[in-house]
Amino acid sequence: MRIRAIASGFAMVAALSAGGLVVSGIWSKEPPPPSLAEASIWTPDRLQAPRIAEVEFPRSVQPRAEDMPAFSAMPLLQVDAAEITLPTIEPPLSTWSREIESGETLDTVLAEAGFSATDRAEVALALGAEYDLRQLRPGHSVTVVSTMDGSPRSVALAVEDSVRIEAIFGDELATQVVTPESETVTLAGEAVIDSSLFAALDDADIPARFAVDLAQMLGGTVDFRREMAGGETLRVLWREARVGQDRIGQPELAFAALEVGGALYEVVWPDNGSGQATVYIDGAVLRVFAQPVEGARLSSVFGRRTHPVYGNVRMHTGVDFAAARGTPVQATAPGRVSFIGWRNGYGRVVEISHGSDTTTRYAHLSAVPDGLVQGQRVAAGDLIGRVGATGTATGPNLHYEVLVDGRPTDPLSDERLAEAAEREANDSAARSMLAEARALLAESLDREIALTATERL
Questions:
Q1: Distance between CA atoms of residues 374 and 357, nearest Å
Q2: H/E run at residue 176
Q3: pLDDT tens figures, 109-149
């Protein structure tokens, strides 16, 4: 049964296939288009066998040097090598510092810091070239920077005015001086004079050293011992250079006003580096004066005294100003240089003629400016020498004399010298300068009073 069914299926498939062939034959009776018939009989051309070309290869020849191209004549391409900066690795450093104590030397401190004798000598020579090591005193300090194995890298010596001298170790020992940048401040104060000018300034927290400056300016006009009854008020304006809150150097007077016996005395020191000061009485110019040595201490006055070298009593023909060696010395009034040279116990001397009968003498000088010559005209405040200890002197100081017709007179009271300076004063400029100083004093005093009141609150 099953075989019969399969046979029937095959028969049916065969019949259908035969029918399809019949139908196909009937439909294909129509001839194909010529282009199609032509395409159906196309066959590709037969491939040709490749022809092997006979090529004669040249024999291997070793090139000769003269046949080589001259590459040396051709420009070469310049290639910049990249610069690679390797980081510098600093060795760890240690710092050691301490202040110099009384009686100590730089060598003592460096030995304590572990320096060898050779290094100590080199450092002393380097620092000594910039600073007189004999001037070391308590309060100065030494700072040493060294590597961990003890090799020194630098030594810094901090002295006055925040100045630092540094010796730096390298291929050669180098030295540099570091000076801090400062700002100038203006201050004002009042002092009531009951006993002495010095004590009054000290009690009012005003630099007491101003007593010397005022004595020079007013000593020949005001008798501070006899004319002052007590209770007089001194008003002072001064300038200070500061780094932060620390004062650098010495303060400088700018203006002072003092009323004595019904007369108002005022002194103006302009901030122009001239060293001149103008003295006024009741608003009129009294004299123009330049201190011979700014900020110096008046160590000896005019008159009889026991001579510091010979020990006997003799006349001191001038005044002495104690100051450090090399401190600038200025002409106190305009005039003409009449002498430069050596005068026995006076040592190195410069003399200036002020008119026909008045001469000022500056003695014990250590040096005189190269450009200063006899016959040269100078103004008040011009540099004419530097403080020294030449001749008969116990230490650096300026001996200052005023001679009238060849006879010594008190430099702080001679009016002829004042007249010589006054002749060069410009009244209009002097009045303007006084007005500005008065206004600045009033402004500064108001500010100081306001600050004091605020602090009390």
A1: 18
A2: strand 174-178
A3: 888 888 888 888 888 888 888 888 888 888 889 998 888 77
| Residue of higher predicted confidence among 74 and 226 | 226
β-pairing, 152-158 vs 141-147, is antiparallel
- What value, to the nearest 5°, has the Cα angle with vertex 57 and ends 67 and 53? 145
> What is the residue whose two structure tokens read 């008119």?
355
Q: Which amino acid is at 10?
A: F
Helix locations, 28-94, DSSP H = 34-40
Query: Which string of DSSP letters, residue by residue, matches 288-344?
Result: EEE-SSTT-EEEE-SEEEE-TTT-SEEEE-SEEEE--TT-EEE-SS-EEEEEEEE-G
The mean pLDDT of 1-5, rounded to a whole number, is 56
Question: Measured between alpha carbons, how far is 438 from 256 in angstroms, rounded to an integer?
Answer: 9
CA dihedral 314, 404, 223, 421 (to 10 degrees): -140
| pTM score, whole prediction | 0.50
Tokens of 425: 């004063």
DSSP 140: B
pLDDT at 185 (0 to 100): 86
> What sign has the CA pseudo-torsion 282, 287, 293, 298?
negative
Residue 329 has pLDDT above 80, yes or no: yes
Which residue has better confidence, 156 or 183?
A: 156
How deeply is 346 buried, as exposed, middle or buried, from its count of CB atoms within 10 A (0-12, 13-18, 19+)? buried
pLDDT of residue 256: 92
DSSP 341-379: EE-GGG-EEEEEEETTTEEEEEEEEEE--TT--TT-EE-
Report whether 194 contacts 206 (CB < 8 A): no
**65-79, 212-226, 260-274 — which one is most confidently predicted on average?**
260-274
Q: Say what the pLDDT of residue 220 is.
A: 62
Q: Does residue 202 carry a pLDDT above 80?
A: yes
Provide long-range contacts, Cβ within 8 A and 24+ apart, for 113-122. Answer: 113/142, 113/144, 113/146, 114/146, 114/150, 115/144, 115/152, 119/152, 122/167, 122/173
Q: What's the DSSP call for residue 109?
A: H
